[in-house]
Amino acid sequence: MKVVEAVKLMRVNFTLLAFAICTPTLITLTLPQFAAAQDTTGHTEAPPSRLERRGPAIDASPLQARIDAAQPGDRIDVAAGTYTGDLYIDRPLTLVGHGRPKLVGSGHRSVVMIRADHVTFDGFDIDGQLGGSLSDDTAGIHVSGHAAVIVRCRIERSLFGVYLYAADDTVIDATTITGILGKDPGEQGSGIHSWNTKRFRLTGNTIRYSRDGFYLQSSSDGFVLNNRVSDVRYGLHYMFSDRNAFEDNVFERGAAGAALMYSKDLTFRRNSFLHSRGFGSVGLLLRACDNVLAEDNLIADNARGLFLEGSTLNVFRGNLIAESDAALVIYDSSLKNRFEGNAFIGNLTPLRLSGRRTDTVFDRNYWSDDTGLDLDGDGVRDDPYRLSNVFDHLRGNLSAADLVSRGLGARALSAAERGFPVLRPIPVLDAHPLARPPVLSRVPAPPRAERGGAGVGFLAASAIGAFGMATLTLGRRLGRRNAEAA
Question: What percent of the chain has pLDDT above 90?
């Protein structure tokens, strides 16, 4: 009996000694810093309280007289030139710019205020003059009518790019929005902000330097296709919005590619979530989101690839999750989620589990660090792949452990676990890990660089193979170089 007790005591002491090596660095991170590191959602914005009204005549655009004289359903063609002042559209009209006329706002309110249904606004450049107020939701284009069509516009120096206020059935297409470069994200609005809007379509737009690319609040049954968002806080910020589909979008170089909360029945296909590299950054975050289908997406070069908290019944299939510090962060409040047919390549760790349990199912995924054998040649390794170890468990429950993840203490703790398994991590297994990377032909190729025409690419989806790691590393370097150049 004494021998058994002595062995148990030796196990405990050896494990505590290993962890003690980590401790001096860990205690330098204060509680406020912990809170900042864990904050990946931002603040919740209240619903708008009022609409901007028509301003005084001195602030009106010279085009306002043509609008006031028009009959419902008329078309107004606008020649090239600069028009200073605000537009207030209170009847169904089609306005078409020729030669890209420029509308320069008064700086006191939104440049274009659409207050009628069935308004089309096509081919204008808009300058918000850095004016207006966040509390008034001042925008380049502010829409409160239904079935508006905004196409081929360019908006700059405006607090919000386009603001949809209960603007059901609105379409925004092929529009470029550039926020206020150098302005703190909290001091400006989003590129496209949608509040209480149903059946919207956001297609082919480009957004940079705003607070968030898209902010969707209480807006459901929409379609977001083929947009590119970069150099913002969150590419997609999202809450209380159901049954929306996102396809072929690129979200890159933000604190989060997408942060989704309190929503259900969402679909993500062929999107790219890239280069979110802050301490608490994440490619795709789901908090209290249910029945999400994410398939054929590229999630790469992020501090954390995919983050799940309080989210249930979600399916992740055929995605490439690569070159991230942690491929997955899963809280034990997330239930009945499933990962199948994904490729996890070149991540420092496959999983950080926060809590004491998970019922997440992993099956037939490829893990690039799995060294198991496939003796029968059926394409599946002979043994299950274990995602979790004791140090990754500590990292999932103690953010500061990241600071020593590559140090002597981490290695000693892992050795202690293997030699004297006192601390037992939660067993998380892929029962049938793939022996070879799957062909993910529908995963998007990395986007081309914005400068110089060179490819950012760190991995071509159609060629995941032996050269994958080299190209992943190249793309990571180029992505950072482009971010510095921008």
Answer: 70
